[in-house]
Structure formats: C-alpha cells, structure tokens
Write a sequence for this structure.
C-alpha cells in the first residue's frame, strides 16, 4: 500500500499542496471581490453611504485566521452579519470553521443603506463541489477530515481520544457515502512480529466496529493489519511507539 | 514455577524416562533434550587425501569437504571433536594407509577416526570415507562409504553432510543426523521480505521467493516438498503455498481477513493457521489446499502462531491474548481441553520438540512499559510445566525452531529488536554451543526442516 509506506511523505505533500491551492485560490477568486453597492436613491444623494469589505485571505484551511477589513463613508452605523454592530471602519481577525459570507450593511442619514460582502472559503469541514475520485484534492480533503485512532500498549480498546477521532471520521464518511476506506492496524516495533499482526488486526477491527456503530456501512470499510511491518517512525521513545500504535484511515481505491 | 534445587532431581528422573540428562558441570536449571546419555565420544576427522585429478581443481572441493565434515561432527552435539592441531600430521587415504596407534594415543586420544580420499575419476568427484574404531584394532571398521557426484564445490559439501550423517547415525544412538537438513527463514532487503533457504549450518543461503512483497512465517511441510508462508499484498495477508519441486507457487484457498502463521500437521495433510475471517483472529484448520476449513478457537482477542504436536498430531500449541498479554496455550486439535502454560509476561512463537515433550518459545517475563525485561528463548517441559531459560544477554530473541533430531534449536536474535538487525543463531537444546550462523542483518523467523 503506497499510502501506508509513504505515509509521512504523503502527509507532507498533502499539506504543501493544500498551502499552494490556498494561495492560488486566494489569487484567482474573482467572484468574491468586494462588492460595492451605492444605492441611487431619492433625497440626499450627496450623503449616500458607501461600504467596502475585504477578507484576506479569501480561502483558508480550518483553524487558520482571516483578516476582515471594512470601510464606510457617510454612514452613521454599520453591522456585519454574524458579528453584530461594528465601528464604521475596522479590522477584525476571525477563524471561521466553515465557509462564510461577511455581509456589511452601512446605514446613513435618511435611511439610505449601502451593502457589501466578502466571501471566505474554508476548505476543510466541507468538501464542496469535489466529486469522489482519485485526484490529490480528494486525498487532501480525506486526510483533513479523518483522524487516526491511537491505542495503549498491547491494547486494542478504543480510548476516549479515539472515540473523538472515530466521531470526526464517521461524520466525514457519513457525509460522503461513496468514499471507501482501508483501515490499517499498526503496532510499535516492540513485541513479536506474528503476534503483532494479530494485534494490529484487532486494532483495525476495533476502529471498524466503532465506525459501523457510528453509522458507516461495513461494506465501505476494509481492514488490513500491518503489525510492526510498516513503522511510521523508528525512535525508541514513548512518543514514537504511540505514533505506531494506531488504526489509520486511507482511501480505498 | 521458577526452577528450584529440586529440578535437578526431577530432571535426572526425566533423563531415565525421556533420555534426558543434566549437564554435569552446569547449574541445575539446564536440561539436555537430546539423546546424549553420558560422556561424549572423542572423534577425529582427518583431512582427506587428495588422489587422482588436477590438484588445482581438487583443492577447493577438498577444502570444503574437510571443513564441512569437521563442522558437522562438531555441531552434532554428541562428540568431543579432536582439534586439527592435536592430530597426527598425516592424511591416510585408505585403510591400508592408516596407523591407528597414531590416532589412539595422546595427544590425539581419539576413540573414533574418520578418514578417506577425495579424487576425480572419469570426470566425476569420487570421495571414499571410512570410520574406524581407533581402540579396536582387530575389527576397526565401523563404516565405509563411497560417493560419486559431479565435480563441484557444492557436491563436495553435500557429500560431507551425507558422510557426517552416516557417522552420527551409527554413533548417536540411532538418531539420524541433521547435516543434510535445511533452515527456511525471512530475509529483509530493500523494503521487501522474501523467503530464503540455507543449509542447517548457515551455508548456501539463497532466496526461494521473488515476490517483491512482505512475506513472513515460512513453514516447511513434513516431506520437504512445500513451503507455506503468509504474504502482504493490497488485499491483506494471505497464506501462500510454494512448491520446492516445481519452483513456483501452487494453489491454496484463503478466507477473507488476515490469514497468517501457517503450521503443518505431522501427516502433511492439514494446516493450522490464524485467520480473522470472523473479524477476530482465531485458530483455524484446513486441508493442505485450503479446503475443509473449521474454526478451532472462539475467544475475543489475538489468537495466532499455532504449532502441532509433531509426535501425536493430536494437540496444538498457540499464542493467545485472550487474557491480556500474549500467553502460551495448548489444546486438543478439535479445540477442547484448553490449558494455559505460561504464568505471565509476554510469551510468543512456540515450537514443539520432535519428541513431543517440550515447547520452545520466546518469553519476556518482565514485559511492560519501562520494564527492563529481556526477551529470551525458553523451553518448557509440558507434562511438568517446568521451564528453563536458554539464552542470556544477546539481545531480543524470538522464533525458536527445533532441529529434526531434537538436539538443537535455531532462533533469531537482534541487539535492538529490529528485524533489520536480526541474525539467526543455533545452539544445543540445553543452551550451550551457541553460535551465529548468518551475517549482514535482516534475517528472521527460522523454520527447520523435518528431516
């Protein structure tokens, strides 16, 4: 399995690719250039408010921050949906967890308003407009939305932190019902090779059973034990041994 | 369960019943599982005399023959082999040329002497060998053999093994020697693990498989014709069957899940193995093409590494994590009469002795996070549950395998436990005469042929 044998490299590549895509996306995203709407209306034309709002960057990964910057003129009050009343001009750093449109409404005297909006695309919790296939984007989305399940030494019981990983993975799989998964069972390099193959099998099956309990069809899940044959790291440390004692999810293609 | 001073008495009793004997100079916690019942026979292996043929062509064949014969007799575990420096400086090539007094007196002081000739006759390698009783000049000849084969170094090596086995059979209480036996093992290289074969002494190592994948747990069939092992591909672990007669894989039907650690029944008609077809690794038994499957264990947790009682074929020993850390168990081959043999620690990789009395296995008695315990080779006598530790301070030891004569155990050891640093070692079944027989690293999971 190339995913397992080049796990570390795959992850680095995925992150690098994600960063590149983010940069490209922010540079090419024409549709979300700040809108400027100056209502032409009766009355006090000279004092009609204006509003501009920008987001930088316009595309982020979950957990990253985006800077919102807005300017108004001739306004007496301003609000941004989801934030509330704001200063007439301002800057704010936010970390949205999903794609959002920041909608600025500036009100001037006489009831005139100006609106502007800036869209921020958050890449991760959702995989919008990406069909299930085999391109790099898919893998990136997959790995961003599943989490390895780690085990105690010589144990195949799912720990509380493993249940969180299962919940996250199950949510993604339930939202993407065509994605199939290989669950790899891994052991640290202590202990005997044959026994570790059986133990890795139990670990992968524990993760599988937890996903099935969370609503994922068993037919989408395939289990392979790697025992101690595919080590993620090779230091003789508790941290490395822990990294190696896991059930890991990869796309089944 | 720890050996006590009473074990020596018990083992002396065992010696009478089971042809066991304690080593006279060793502590009481050592046993001898072979058939040696007392003083070793002092034997000399003369350098064979080169006769007909081009000396240059003959030199290497003779050198390999002399070295192999000496090594085989020294390895047998039943002889006190006279060192070459203690021998008379002669090469008797025939019974007419030997002066037995030279060999029977000090410093040689041999009871038995093996001698003979190496030559080329009619394009063939011809080796004549004799075994004489040095202290019985009236009827000295115990053995006389002539071997003819193609003139190669490999032929010389094989003939030396055959002649050594003839000598061992005559002088070793009728138990056939192991000089012609083979060891199958896993060799790691370039990210793959292939199945290799070598002579019992580590010579002549060569790959059997070229699958470019990870293959583990080679197990040779009782008749030596087929090798079962397990291989990882994109679908997981499946048991493969390799024919040594055809030189290729032959059919074996697998179930779903992880199928691993095959083990031959002594009749060659059945395999025990571990399969997770039910979602949990259990011990199963099939015929030797994968048909007629039946599940033998039914317990949550890892069950793996089965091995049959090679004498009765009626019991299976295996490793189970049903109670936590892996422990050694035995049961009847139908899954009844389950009995746990180890009292704790981390026990793996059982190998059942040819006489059915002992199980060798790897054991870390103080296994645990931060625990300093080492993993060593142990032997347990099944009837009494008494055990002894055979290895000390040579790193992480695993996968013991008994020789066909029950006098030797080969195993893997790695200074840091990594497979890539693994080498194969051999020792007598009481833990003495230990030596490394591979080099270069990446050598693990030995499995000794049945003959």
């Amino acid at each position: 399995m190339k995913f397992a044998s080049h796990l570390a490299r795959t992850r680095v590549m995925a992150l690098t690719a994600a960063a590149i895509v983010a940069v490209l996306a922010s540079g090419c995203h024409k549709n979300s250039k700040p809108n400027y709407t100056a209502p032409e209306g009766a009355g006090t034309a000279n004092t009609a408010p204006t509003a501009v709002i920008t987001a930088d960057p316009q595309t982020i990964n979950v957990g990253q921050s985006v800077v919102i910057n807005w300017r108004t003129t001739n306004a007496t009050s301003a609000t941004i949906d989801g934030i509330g009343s704001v200063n007439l001009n301002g800057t704010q750093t936010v970390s949205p967890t999903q794609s959002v449109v920041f909608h600025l409404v500036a009100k001037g005297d006489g009831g005139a308003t100006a609106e502007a909006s800036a869209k921020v695309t958050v890449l991760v919790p959702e995989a919008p407009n990406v069909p299930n296939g085999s391109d790099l984007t898919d893998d990136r989305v997959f790995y961003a939305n599943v989490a390895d399940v780690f085990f105690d030494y010589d144990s195949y019981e799912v720990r509380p932190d493993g249940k969180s990983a299962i919940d996250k993975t199950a949510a993604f799989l339930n939202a993407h019902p065509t994605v199939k998964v290989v669950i790899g069972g891994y052991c640290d390099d202590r202990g005997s090779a044959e026994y570790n193959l059986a133990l890795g099998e139990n670990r992968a099956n524990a993760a599988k059973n937890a996903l099935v309990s969370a609503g994922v069809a068993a037919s989408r899940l395939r289990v392979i034990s790697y025992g101690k044959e595919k080590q993620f790291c090779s230091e003789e440390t508790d941290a490395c041994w822990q990294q190696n004692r896991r059930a890991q999810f990869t796309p089944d293609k | 369960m720890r050996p006590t001073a009473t074990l020596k008495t018990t083992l002396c009793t065992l010696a009478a019943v089971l042809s066991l004997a304690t080593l006279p100079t060793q502590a009481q916690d050592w046993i001898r599982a072979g058939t040696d019942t007392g003083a070793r026979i002092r034997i000399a292996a003369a350098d064979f005399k080169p006769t007909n043929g081009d000396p240059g062509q003959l030199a290497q064949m003779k050198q390999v023959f002399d070295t192999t014969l000496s090594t085989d007799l020294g390895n047998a575990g039943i002889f006190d082999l006279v060192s070459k420096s203690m021998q008379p400086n002669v090469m008797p090539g025939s019974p007419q040329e030997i002066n037995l007094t030279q060999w029977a007196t000090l410093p040689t002081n041999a009871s038995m002497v093996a001698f003979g000739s190496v030559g080329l006759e009619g394009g063939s390698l011809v080796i004549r060998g004799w075994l004489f009783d040095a202290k019985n000049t009236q009827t000295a000849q115990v053995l006389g053999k002539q071997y003819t084969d193609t003139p190669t170094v490999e032929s010389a090596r094989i003939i030396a093994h055959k002649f050594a086995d003839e000598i061992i059979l005559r002088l070793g209480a009728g138990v056939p020697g192991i000089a012609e036996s083979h060891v199958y093992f896993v060799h790691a290289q370039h990210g793959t693990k292939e199945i290799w074969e070598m002579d019992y002494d580590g010579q002549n190592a060569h790959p059997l498989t070229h699958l470019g994948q990870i293959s583990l747990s080679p197990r040779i069939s009782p008749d030596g014709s087929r090798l079962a092992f397990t291989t990882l591909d994109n679908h997981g672990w499946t048991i493969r069957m390799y024919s040594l007669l055809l030189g290729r894989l032959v059919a074996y039907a697998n179930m779903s899940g992880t199928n691993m650690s095959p083990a031959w029944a002594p009749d060659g008609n059945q395999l025990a193995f571990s399969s997770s077809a039910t979602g949990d690794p259990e011990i199963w038994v099939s015929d030797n093409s994968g048909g007629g499957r039946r599940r033998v264990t039914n317990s949550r947790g890892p069950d793996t590494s089965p091995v049959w009682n090679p004498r009765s074929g009626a019991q299976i020993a295996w490793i189970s994590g049903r109670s936590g850390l892996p422990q050694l168990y035995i049961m009847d081959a139908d899954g009844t009469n389950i009995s746990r043999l180890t009292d704790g620690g981390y026990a793996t990789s059982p190998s059942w002795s040819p006489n059915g009395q002992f199980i060798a296995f790897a054991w870390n008695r103080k296994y645990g996070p931060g625990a300093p315990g080492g993993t060593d080779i142990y032997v347990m006598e099944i009837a009494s549950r008494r055990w002894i530790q055979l290895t000390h301070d040579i790193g992480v030891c695993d996968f013991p395998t008994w020789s066909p004569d029950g006098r030797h155990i080969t195993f893997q050891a790695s200074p840091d436990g990594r497979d890539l640093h693994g080498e194969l070692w051999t020792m007598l079944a009481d833990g003495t005469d230990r030596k490394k027989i591979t080099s270069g690293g990446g050598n693990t999971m030995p499995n000794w042929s049945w003959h």
Remarks:
- Chain B has four helices and 30 strands.
- The first helix of chain B runs from residue 6 to 18.
- Residues 41-171 of chain B form a domain with the Rossmann fold fold (CATH 3.40.50.10070).
- The interface with chain A takes residues 191, 193, 214, 216-217, 232, 234-237, 257-258, 260-261, 274, 276, 279-281, 301-305, 319, 321, 324-326, 346, 348-349, 362, 369, 375, 398-399, 416-419, 444-445 of chain B (CB under 8 Å).
